[in-house]
Amino acid sequence: MRDKTVNKSKKEIVREYIKAIFIAIIIALFIRTFFVQAFRIPSGSMIPTLQIGDWLLVNKVIYGVKVPHIRKTIVPGRTPKRGEIIVFIYPMDKTKDFIKRVIAVGGDIVEIKNKKISINGAPFDDSHGSFTDTLILPRSVQPRDNLGPIKIPPNHVFVMGDNRDNSYDSRFWGFVPLKDIIGKAFIIYWSWDGNRHNVRWNRLAKIIR
Length: 209
Fold this sequence. Notes:
Blueprint: H1 2-34, E1 36-40, E2 54-59, E3 64-67, E4 72-76, E5 85-89, E6 97-105, E7 109-113, E8 116-119, E9 122-123, E10 147-151, E11 156-160, H2 170-173, E12 176-177, E13 181-193, E14 198-199, E15 206-207
Antiparallel strand pairs: 1-2, 2-13, 3-4, 5-6, 5-13, 6-11, 7-8, 7-10, 8-9, 11-12, 13-14, 13-15
């Protein structure tokens, strides 16, 4: 009788562990789907604000809770503001996620002259913009340094990478629909320099601005 009781107890313990693990997975998936998600920075388009190898958390609630895949908002949130860093579904390839900074919102008129941005006719405070190329390209060559004026459609935003001379963004492929915005980047929780095989300790727990 004792062996049967012991075996029964072990089976109950195993079942409890499996149940706990299953519940933990469901909760984690629920949180990832609707609240917070982790993303890795694979390119240098947001240098110096974000480095290649940064891992960050994205607040998925702030702009509204959306149903995955169909992107229908079920809990409304606020609209993105100029200057915020967002993660969104890349309009040209829905299988990819991009991260950029919001420069203008629906109804704004954007113009870029010789790398200088103006919004609605006023100079834009481009304190996050970083430039590495002194060459100014004319509009006839490409829109990197000269663009517009263009008006942002309702329910869309205009985004750019902080690495202004090395970012493929709204200047080249257009606007981001609000429904395709995944969330707002808010903190770096891990950072790894893959080239030097070093952890960037000074970047851990850094608030993203």
